[in-house]
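Example protein
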Amino acid sequence: MRVFVTGATGLIGSTVVAELLGNGHTVLALARSDASARAAEAAGAEPLRGALADLDVLRAGATQADGVVHLAFGNDFSSPEALARNIAEESAALAALGEELVGSNRPFVTVSGTPQAPGRASTEADPVPTDGPVGGRGRTVTAVLDLAARGVRSTAVRLPRTVHNQGEGGFAGLLTDLARRTGVSGYPGDGTQRWPAVHALDAAVLLRLALEQAEAGSVWHAVADEGDQVRDIAAVIGRRLGLPVESVPSQTYGPLASIFATDQPSSSDRTRQTLGWEPKHPGLLEDLENIRP
């Protein structure tokens, strides 16, 4: 299968490209810079120059492909306005890709976050939020899944709060970055809230399985660790960096504060049973031991 991949050279995308190529697919990779294009070529993919905002380029990529995997998302979380811009850009991109695939029965895999279910681990049956700081993203993913009624084999892989590799990535990676900048390995509240996680290499396998097998309109959870307490995550970060570990004000985390403070464990039982997905790589706390002082 020839697969058009956005976000192909990021922490998750690079593992997805390798997973696709290693399983007999070819990859057309969206590349927003010369450096990204060179990285895509070095990985064995064909680069297509353009950014997520270049809708004509996205349409051209989808036209040339047998399936699409969307992973790109803006990295600016500095303010509510920046987060809203990221979501709006992604929404327009997904709408353009989806319209290009209507009536083709080609697979369209996108990603979102795992939802929160008060008092228990969320499951694939729980809806994603459509309000709050990331509600716009939930509405966008719902629209992609609705394309199942228009001849698109659309599916969503919900990624947990931390997708990690060699101690980097996700919300845990944001905690590490903040610790380096502030001199404190902090956590919001009492730190007992739980965050799910998955190794990027395991997430890549699930994204490939969804591309190959998933039914139209289906939802999957890329969750290996159901939920580590945030204070335990901060403790490993603090020890690796030689920094004190303590609770910090929620405003430290900007527009993501409410999400950081929420207990949000998640289950992947249905995903494992249906697609035969079984995570094999190190869990988050073990992987964080790779953080360099």
